[in-house]
Amino acid sequence: VSDQKPLGCWSVKHGQIITCPVVCNFETHEYIAVHDDKVLRIWKNKDINLDKVFKATLSADVYRIHSLPNGGPVVLFKGGGVRTLDVLLEAPQQEIENIISDEVIKWSEASMEGQQPVLIFATEKDGNFFVYVQKLKMNRLQKYKLEQQELSKPLSFTAYIKNQIITLLCLYSNDSVYEVLIPLQQTSEEEEQILSKSLILKLSVSGSVLKGTSFVVLDKDHIAILGSLAAPGEESKECLTIWNTKFQTLQTSKELPLGTSGQLWCYEEKFFFTHGKVLTVMMYKCETSSLAAAVGKLKDSQTPDVSSFVNWNTLADEELVVSFQSQQSVALKSESKMTLRSKRNTVAKVQPDTLSVGQILLNLKDASTTVFEDELRQLMSKAQMPDFQASIGCVITALIKRCKTNPKYYPRNFLLHIVETRDLSYSLCPDLMSVALEKKDVHLLQICLQRFPDIPEETTYACLKVFLSISEAYLQRIDVNLESVICYIDVEFNNKEVKTEIVENGFNAELEHDIWDTKITKETHPTAGELCPVGPQKAALLNAVLQSAYSEAFLLPHLKNLPAQQAVLFLRYLYYLYVKCSEKINTALPGTRSPTISQIMDWMCLLLDAHFTVMVMLPEAKELLSNLHKFVRAQVRFYSELNKIEGSLQELQRRNHQKDSQTYSIEVLELI
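^ NOL11 protein, sequence as received from the core. Prediction below:
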């Protein structure tokens, strides 16, 4: 998620439907899915086709699979039956008991109490709600009935276990959150006990009411609720809110203007929810609840509390602190230990050392260029700064913001220094490459492609298009890193062939002064196909694109928009690299940061998939495709011949191991 890159994708056949969320088995590192209610599928990362993975048809419909880090997967059936995955796989067609008869499961959750897996699920029948607690190792099921609430019903549940007590929280339709305590050590023999509930939170503040859809527990005093906040006479707005249940106060809220699916997940101090068409990840941190902090949040709303790595693009200038601090992993923090009494007094001027990164950048908003850059360099020099990497991302964001407001301002060397010396990613500074593309700063784009692991395919394609469109004459005046090409490239310049070669143990001093002053190693007269179709600078830039990470499904639609002439030029360069690789026994290009033969072939296939019809129709591509076809066919024949003698070579190797190496002999082997 942090790299924003898809790692795998699997599809069921047309007509099949995945009927419950897929989970990961933490013990075997396998994925488990159920489609069409009864068909179980289990596979690993290396599997590609779901039709060829493990399949088991069960005897009853599955409601949900829960995966526990130390307890293994647990399968809950729609009839209330529960099985561990291991027991289920021993006999997939085993009969599953129907426990809940006409009741419908509304929610379920599994957790560990010590070494004991515990499954909790809630059901509904005729307006009545029931809670079941299943202890798997003891095979004990306990049923409870929720105390009824007039004119309202539970919409969502969540639960956690502590000190042998299950704390069940229920979000009701009357905009309230209730708490139910269920002891795990059951002493009563009653078949069905009535659970009483207690009100812990009313979802209203200053006349506004939150219509919650889902919620999660953050700690013993805080919960997060996703829903719509509506004030009298105003249109409701979807938002994420964090509440203090101890003091029944709203800690903070964040409006979500693009809308959500109504689902909220929480894992390792991160929120996950959909915002518009994207998955949003928001980091948070809860501190010990105190009355001063709870009341202080209501008294002063200047401090941003919810933070995320997401660039919302909806923040106004006065919310600059929020946008900067959104890249620091902080939320729900107490308010610098101010007391209510100090609030009424004049607040002393805050010293610069105590200011957050966001506040420092806000203070520099109107500073001169020299002061602005000096302060940013000073800020970056603080190695002990909390959330250092995120703070560097804030610095780049501030630089880019100034570039956008002042088109004449572009601190190229400063940006290049930051990218080369800091371990950054695209997600920390998403606008950096877009500005570099706009300025046609190919050197910065090259470094970003080499160092960022999470560049979106659309940006990779934009870099490729810019690199192919820039003239060779312009590139000769640009500083570009040539370490990926200087060991192998052959180019034609002023009708003379130039073959670059590394001497003096991998270093050629002449190359440091002028790429065109390279030593001519030997005079030859190669054919046009043997010469690199692009200059060294453009070749180095294209190599950076070839080595960037991508997903074929996301890149192909963009690649189809590449102009035909640029596509042909790119294919000629890929063909040149392919021939160069094939000249070597290890099929690898010399030098550092050189593309591998797998990367070259993958891009060649992608380009042909995207432009094959156009290539066939273009006269200038006809000879190129013909040469490529002949070369590949010759390689296929060569490897086919090698395969024929593979058995003989293995036999020869076996015989050599069996003989005494000290004995001299000449033996003639006939290869048939």
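The longest strand covers residues 208-219.
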